[in-house]
């Protein structure tokens, strides 16, 4: 007996935005798009829906009533989100399809007993989706059309007993049959506001009065007509296997296996115009144990020789013991990569870009990802806010680097308070104590005044000094506030090379 589960994401687009920006979760907001010269609401959050705001309404009309209503541009990539949710449902059933712009259909035949029955199965899926931030309604029935109708219009228990869809559908409105609006209007004008009022009419009467659509939709709901479910195909993992006739115990044999696996996986990456960002090699030994090594890259790569060199750095950590009988190479993280990408920071030739990328990959895999940092400028005067760290080599700076005086190579995330000795107010210190060590200042340059950003927070300005101690160490110090008004505090904020 076939059984289906329909899942309806009532506010899918709004839920997605709220997941990205958690501050919106309790806020009424809408998603809009331009349509025929007007800005029309395409989706609403649950809170906006409670205010009576409906999709299809003109934004200007709604804001006349709710002037503080938040609105954002519609994200057109909702289909990809539904497809990814369908793939996520593979843990519950191998057959899941996308149903319209906001729903999924699951073929749950023969699956529910693994969860202890349909009730537990239903609660498990709905609870996990709701805990993930989605507002959903769902239903289980013998047919896809009945499950769809009960999920959206039903008010009874959503798990319909086998053969019970006809009784439940009688009390639902004609919209639950997914009829065209013109047909629904004709039914309502005749007083047929529930499906049960025309469900038992002779087929010839239905066909003559309302056309074939009503009869076909009733047939799908009751199971008299078949309905096709097109399952979403999960992406094929980027994985290659290489079994060995004889166990491999030597480094040259391992190197040869890696080269063959890279050739296979890079061929597929080339066809799909992708490059890998992470790769993992798993070696299965004859004694049942596994050996693993992994690499990462700063940008998408499918150059076999470069990837081999990254693996080569770690081959010595593999212990083959009595021999390796199976090699498995997996690329869990891949990204788009055209035939020739022409941007890496501000380097002018592709050769330089590729050389720098390969150098960073070797450094990262030898020293670790924490050893490499890249920063981009931000539009702030306050030093700790003037930069931000990024892991994407391809990302371009939104603003140009400012023409500041010399800045320290290492800037502390937050200034550290120090004790100083100052001969005259507004002079640099003659010594300071940092981490229990006394540093005597032999050279100093400054001050450079940096005012606090009053539109963000209130507080004192800073006067920065570049100082050098007897040992040749160079530091960036600042005084917070003026002498005379109160006793100012001194801080260290960075180290020069």
UniProtKB/TrEMBL annotation:
Q: Which organism is it from?
A: Chitinophaga nivalis
Q: Which Pfam families match?
A: IMS
Q: Which residue intervals define the domain UmuC in the entry? A: 8-150
Name used for this protein in its record? DNA polymerase Y family protein
Q: Which CDD domains match?
A: PolY_like
Give UniProt keywords alphabetically. Answer: DNA damage
